[in-house]
Amino acid sequence: MTYKIRHDRSNCIGCTACAAICPQFWEMSSEDGKSDVVGSVLGSDGWEELEISEADFPKNMDAAGVCPVNVIHLMKIGSGEQLI
Question: Which residue segments constitute the domains of the chain, with CATH numbers given?
Answer without folding.
Answer: 2-76 (3.30.70.20)
